[in-house]
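Curious: why this fold?
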Amino acid sequence: MLTEIKDDFDLRKIEDSGQCFRVRRSEEGVFTFIHLDSILHIKKIRDCLYDVSCDEKKWKGVWESYFDLKRDYGKIRDEIPDDDRYMKEASLMGKGIRILKQDPWEMLITFIISQRRNIPSIKRSVELICDRYGTHTEGGDAGIKLFPKPAQMKDLSIEDLAGLNLGYRDEYILDACKRVNSGETDLNALYDASDEELVNELKKIKGVGNKVAGCIGLFAYERTGLVPVDTWIGRVIEDVYGGEDPFVRYGENAGIMQQWAFYRIRSEKADRS
């Protein structure tokens, strides 16, 4: 099916944005996204026109929400005040990134894994988990395994996690599995929680601090006012803004600004390498 996306939308930048770890890209320019039990193959045909491997019902019912297509990112970018030159330029460099609405369970596990690791190593561990505990899809996507559900990881031990390159994070993964499967942490109930309640509840899980909880809130629960502060964003705050938080002024769009700033500082570092 062909579909139009008229707002900011760049598949390559979304893949490189550090918020999703299972995107696949073919040499032909086809990007594959996996969300719960849905798989999408999408390719840009020309400006604003994309070929997608689903019907209109699936596109509107799953993928429009996943890609946050009801939000006008162009308008948000245009409203950045002229006195914030760094953020204005970051929004142009990161034009096309969107905040993906992903599965809270997958975000919990993958961002626990993400601590102090680079994106390629995170992806390898995530795929190992899927290969070992996930479910095969059917039809033309039979080679892709879905991310395992909590019940599929319910009775794991430290020994079970050997070979997944998790290091000290293995005990954090086990604690997350125990809490979610027992109902001690109710991920569905957090949709109705305030930002503060959501972050505090997630931080009860071993290995989940402000940064990881902020990532889960931003990338699973659409809490676009949350700003996860990692090493990169810490550099932006300290080196560019003299230690003053530049994101506060943007309110409910602060997390979107964070993604643009994150993309800019990492891209500039790569250009200097």
